[in-house]
């Protein structure tokens, strides 16, 4: 089934330019005063910098502001959000740490705090921040290398607790519920598709897609017959805006919405990721393709179309409904 691809322009927004300033550590400034700016405080203590020389805005996604802090010790990448508390970034930090620990694909190294000064926290004026490694990007690298290293991460990152994650996190700005489950079909039906469908019903009053979607959830088990599903560590939101290459052309993945799930669910954003044949060939050499992969592919796209509907409006409704209707016909449900 071919899903109708909605406009990608809704995923992007212009970012305001941030004021460029130069900071140095005052010799007689007290720690109490510094706490008015926790980002600056962390960089000048945990980050071991004595001077912040420049702050520049970085383009990127449409949820947070991204900033590059230039210092005399190392560069730092900082994301801020003026309307959401630190829980969102705490989930991101745990995801980055989990991916980093697989020692497979490159991710921005999450900084750990050795004192009360946190690399993730609340802003005094409202909102939150996260501080991480700044990676200098280079030219586009090999899709085959991206596929191979992503598969290696899925192979290395396993959980004995089942499907879910240590904390709930966000997909975009939508809550993503990660309560542990030993049953993937139940987890994906309730915590992924079902949660999005309930949001659509409550936010837009869309009972039609809610009812059809739940009929699909109740009948989708046959799509997983003869499939062994292991809980693999997933990036969770892998589209082109969250994929880059460093100056050595090694792939880097960013802005995760991590959880442990069926590895095929990682391709749910493939409709705006640009994965080519070389990517999939390299991936499946490490993580062999399971029986029925093609039949399940759109089921994993559906989660992200539903989320885009919730985030950006009804422009994504037809794509989601097309997938649901297609499966209901296939399953005679």
Tell me what the structure shows.
InterPro entries: Fructo-/Ketosamine-3-kinase (IPR016477), Kinase-like_dom_sf (IPR011009). This protein is of the alpha+beta class and 333 residues long. It folds into two domains: 38-133, Phosphorylase Kinase, domain 1; 143-331, Aminoglycoside phosphotransferase (APH), C-terminal lobe (Aminoglycoside 3'-phosphotransferase, Chain: A, domain 2, Alpha-Beta Complex), CATH 3.90.1200.10. Helix content is 35%, strand content 15%. It contains nine helices and twelve strands. The chain has helices at 31-34, 38-44, 87-101, 143-156, 184-204, 207-219, 277-286, 293-312, 317-330; strands at 23-24, 51-58, 65-71, 76-81, 120-122, 128-133, 169-171, 174-176, 232-234, 243-245, 251-253, 259-261. Strands 1-2-3-4-6-5 form a six-stranded antiparallel beta sheet, with helices on both faces. Strands 7-8 form a two-stranded antiparallel ribbon. A two-stranded antiparallel ribbon has the order 9-12. The radius of gyration is 21 Å and the shape is globular. 37% of the residues are buried. Mean pLDDT is 89; it is low at 1-34.
């Amino acid at each position: 089934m071919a899903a109708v691809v909605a406009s990608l322009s809704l995923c992007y927004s212009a970012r305001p330019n941030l004021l460029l300033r130069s900071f140095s550590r005052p010799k007689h400034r007290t720690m109490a005063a510094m706490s008015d700016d926790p980002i600056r405080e962390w960089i000048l203590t945990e980050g071991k910098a004595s001077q912040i020389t420049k702050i520049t805005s970085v383009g990127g996604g449409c949820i947070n502001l991204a900033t590059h802090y230039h210092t005399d010790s190392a560069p730092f990448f900082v994301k801020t959000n003026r309307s959401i508390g630190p829980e969102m970034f705490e989930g991101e930090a745990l995801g980055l740490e989990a991916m980093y620990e697989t020692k497979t694909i490159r991710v921005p190294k999450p900084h750990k705090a050795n004192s009360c000064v946190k690399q993730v926290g609340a802003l005094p004026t409202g909102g939150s921040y996260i501080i991480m490694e700044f990676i200098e990007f280079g030219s586009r690298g090999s899709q085959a290398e991206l596929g191979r290293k992503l598969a290696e991460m899925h192979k290395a990152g396993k959980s004995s607790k089942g499907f879910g994650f240590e904390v709930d996190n966000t997909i975009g700005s939508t809550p993503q519920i990660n309560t542990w489950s030993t049953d993937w079909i139940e987890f994906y039906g309730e915590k992924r598709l079902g949660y999005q469908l309930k949001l659509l019903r409550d936010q837009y009053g869309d009972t039609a897609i809610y009812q059809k979607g739940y009929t699909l959830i109740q009948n989708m088990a046959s799509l997983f017959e003869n499939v062994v599903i292991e809980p693999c560590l997933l990036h969770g939101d892998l589209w082109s805006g969250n994929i880059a290459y460093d100056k050595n052309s090694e792939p880097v993945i960013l802005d995760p919405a991590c959880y442990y799930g069926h590895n095929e669910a990682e391709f749910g954003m493939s409709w705006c990721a640009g994965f080519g044949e070389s990517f999939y060939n390299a991936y499946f050499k490490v993580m062999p393709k399971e029986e029925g992969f093609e039949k399940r592919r759109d089921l994993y796209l559906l989660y992200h179309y539903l989320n885009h509907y919730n985030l950006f409006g009804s422009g994504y409704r037809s794509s989601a409904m097309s997938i649901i209707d297609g499966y209901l016909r296939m399953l005679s449900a």
